[in-house]
Structure formats: structure tokens, C-alpha cells
Specification:
This protein is mainly alpha-helical. It has a domain of 76 residues. Helices cover 76% and strands 0% of the residues. The protein has four helices and no strands. Helix 2 runs antiparallel to helix 3 and helix 2 runs parallel beside helix 4.
């Protein structure tokens, strides 16, 4: 009986320690890397969603889409110069351009949400 209790106790200790290792450091678990292509797709979907929710006018949405088209052209041009791959410098510039589009999109969406005081 004592041997069974000891085994049960040992099993509980081992499972508890494994559980604490798994849940102790969630930031240690790797997040999937969001690629430039993923960001472009996400921004495009947000533009579409913003337009449908009347947070963006047609003109605003078209301007943002135009910005994304220009970024895609930059990507293709940069890839053609570097054997089909983006250099770190080009990647950094494109990320900055995507950040600008993202900030514009968020600002325009939030402008439509705010209510003017009477």
C-alpha cells in the first residue's frame, strides 16, 4: 500500500512539474513570423472591412489600395534586382511603407468612429 501511495505521489509531482514548465513561460513559445505578404493580405482585408463598415469612404479605400499596389511594385522591382529575393535593406524600407499604410488606415477608421461633441 505504501509503495502504491509513493508511486501515486511521484506521478503527481512529475505531472505537476511538467505542467509548470509548459505554462510557466508562454513568451518562450515561438510566435509565427508574419511575412510581408501576410501583412499586405491583412491590410487589404482591413481596408475591405473598413469600407464595408463605412469607416472608410470609397476614395479613402482606393487611395490605401493604391498605396499597397505601389508597395507590391516596389517588392517586384527589388526582387528583380536581387535574384528574386528581397535584401534586408529593401525589406526594411517595405516594412516602413507598410507601417505608414497601417497607420493611415487606423487613423481613418478611428476618425469615423469619433463623435463630434454638440
Amino acid at each position: 500500500m505504501n509503495r502504491t501511495m509513493a508511486n501515486l505521489f511521484l506521478g503527481l509531482v512529475v505531472s505537476a512539474s511538467i505542467g509548470s514548465i509548459t505554462f510557466a513561460a508562454p513568451e518562450a513559445q515561438a510566435k509565427p513570423k508574419v511575412t510581408i505578404t501576410d501583412r499586405i493580405e491583412i491590410l487589404s482585408k482591413k481596408i475591405e472591412k473598413g469600407q464595408k463598415a463605412n469607416e472608410l469612404t470609397l476614395k479613402e479605400a482606393d487611395k490605401l489600395r493604391s498605396d499597397i499596389t505601389k508597395i507590391n511594385e516596389k517588392i517586384e522591382k527589388a526582387k528583380s534586382k536581387n535574384a528574386g529575393k528581397l535584401s534586408y535593406e529593401d525589406e526594411s524600407k517595405i516594412e516602413k511603407d507598410l507601417n505608414k499604410v497601417s497607420v493611415k488606415l487606423t487613423a481613418k477608421e478611428l476618425d469615423k468612429r469619433t463623435v463630434s461633441p454638440n
